Amino acid sequence: MGLFEDIKEKFNELEDGRYVVRVEGFKRDKTIRNSNPIRWELSLMNDYSAQLPAKFSHVETNAGFQILLRELKNLGYSKPGSAEEFEEILNSLRGAIVEVSVTTTNKEEGYREVKFLRKLY
User: What is the mean pLDDT of residues 31-35?
Assistant: First the structure.
């Protein structure tokens, strides 16, 4: 075993495109900048040797919240009327099969974006 065998998969990125994932869950993660985005737990449905980039939804900013609302609309959900209803919608996504897009937004910095496109099941 090589010295860096444990991180070899980090060099095997998915190509930009569309993929089918299962929504395993989500959590709120505090970042070093003290923001609280949603970190989605997604798993690829097909047998890819590459890893799916992490998906974050920055709901603490108005722009990030509106982006997530548009994605939820793509998945077939109406705009929630309260924080409780919002949480119910997110919880109902656990176990859902969803199509996502992966796009490289900044090659120099390695920024990759994952967007929800549509709910398959």
Answer: 79
Closest of 101, 97, 102 to residue 119, by C-alpha = 97
What are all long-range contacts of 29-32, with beta carbons under 8 Å and residues at least 24 apart? 29/56
Burial category of 23 from C-beta neighbours within 10 Å (exposed 0-12, middle 13-18, buried 19 and up): buried
pLDDT higher than 80, residue 4: yes
Q: Give the C-alpha distances (Å, rounded to integers) separating 68 from 21, 60, 79, 115.
A: 17, 11, 10, 9
Please tell me the pTM assigned to this model. 0.83
Which residue is it, tokens 């060099």? Answer: 11
Nearest of 47, 20, 103, 65 to residue 114 by alpha carbon? 103
Residue 80 has pLDDT above 80, yes or no: yes
Q: Which domains does the chain have, with CATH numbers?
A: 17-119 (2.40.50.140)
